[in-house]
Design the sequence.
């Protein structure tokens, strides 16, 4: 058997990020990310040279390298020490190109980056496991996975929230209303996407102040409601206080269920609810319908801001 077992190889090959260290002329370390790192066989790793001038210069004279691959959710990984060399032609180049193509690596560049002309092959001489200290401190793998899945889910939400919403192309004449204009919040109010960021206490507080009926005493349930919502808009006043919220689940393409639209009673009647609603609609785009259920009181409110009543809806009610 070589230095890397099937399990180790599988773990390395399923990871999407590695860091490779080489040694500079003056003995200082040189570390850089290589997302293409993959196993070639039980003793060899390889990565595509896409933009690694310093690593390539270093290994030309000092081939010693170390790669680290860590699963960011299981918080386990491998340190892989060895010696590196460049492969830039011949049968070995062709077989590495076939390996990376089979992994779905873009070797031709699609006009954005130069085609891959070199691979770096690492002969692995030492493999050691990497383990988060969380395990030594008593956490089990399921606990670690649960915790870090949530962290990364939250980060993904925040990244999506900070990115510009995708502009969907409506068919000619398909846009009945200009939601960009209707979504304008009243003066002094800022509307923002905050899924993954809005804290459960703030959420509960604005729900309470709006008088909307929700399970306010069940922090666990409110946390789940926030955690799984993928479009949460907040309305804040000039001092940053939360005065309104809308919480939706959507595929950004076909449907959106807006579950909670709540505005602090002290701020009602100023167009904040309408702005939250239409900003939600603007973000999901013209292809997606927006559905909500009204409490008895606002039954006349929604038609007044331009929403249609449906008679073809059916529901299985929650039990509590
Ligand atoms: C997410 C990410 C993945 C990368 N993957 C690779 C890679 O697979 N191969 C590569 O040559 N460069 C890759 N790079 C670019 C190099 O890490 C970057 O150009 C670095 O500055 C090269 O440093 P070096 O010259 O010390 O190798 C990646 C960069 C990032 C941020």
Sequence:
């Amino acid at each position: 058997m070589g230095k890397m077992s099937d399990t180790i190889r599988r773990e390395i090959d399923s990871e999407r990020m590695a860091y490779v260290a080489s040694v500079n002329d003056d003995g200082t370390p040189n570390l850089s990310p290589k997302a293409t790192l993959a196993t070639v066989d039980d003793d060899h790793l390889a990565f595509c040279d896409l933009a690694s001038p310093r690593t390539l210069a270093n290994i030309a004279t000092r081939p010693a390298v170390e790669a680290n691959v860590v699963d960011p959710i299981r918080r386990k990984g491998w340190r892989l020490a060895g010696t590196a060399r460049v492969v830039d032609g011949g049968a070995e180049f062709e077989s590495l190109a076939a390996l990376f193509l089979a992994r779905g690596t873009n070797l031709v560049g699609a006009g954005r980056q130069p085609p891959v002309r070199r691979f770096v092959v690492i002969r692995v001489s030492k493999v050691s496991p990497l383990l988060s200290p969380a395990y030594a401190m008593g956490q089990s793998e399921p606990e670690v996975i649960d915790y870090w899945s949530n962290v990364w889910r939250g980060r993904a939400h925040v990244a999506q929230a900070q990115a510009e919403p995708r502009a969907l192309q409506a068919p000619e004449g398909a846009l009945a209303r200009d939601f960009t204009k209707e979504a304008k919040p009243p003066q002094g109010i800022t509307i923002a996407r905050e899924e993954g960021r809005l804290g459960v206490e703030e959420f509960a507080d604005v729900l309470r102040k709006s008088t909307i009926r929700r399970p306010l005493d069940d922090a666990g349930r409110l946390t789940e409601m926030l955690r799984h919502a993928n479009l949460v808009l907040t309305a804040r006043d000039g001092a940053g206080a939360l005065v309104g919220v809308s919480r939706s689940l959507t595929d950004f393409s076909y449907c959106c269920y807006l579950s909670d639209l709540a505005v602090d009673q002290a701020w009602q009647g100023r167009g904040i609810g309408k702005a939250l609603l239409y900003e939600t609609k603007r973000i999901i785009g013209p292809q997606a319908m927006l559905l909500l259920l009204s409490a008895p009181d606002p039954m006349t409110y929604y038609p007044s801001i331009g929403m249609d009543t449906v008679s073809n809806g059916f529901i299985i009610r929650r039990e509590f």
User: Anything to note?
Assistant: The longest strand covers residues 119-131. Residues 27 and 232 are 50 Å apart (CA to CA).
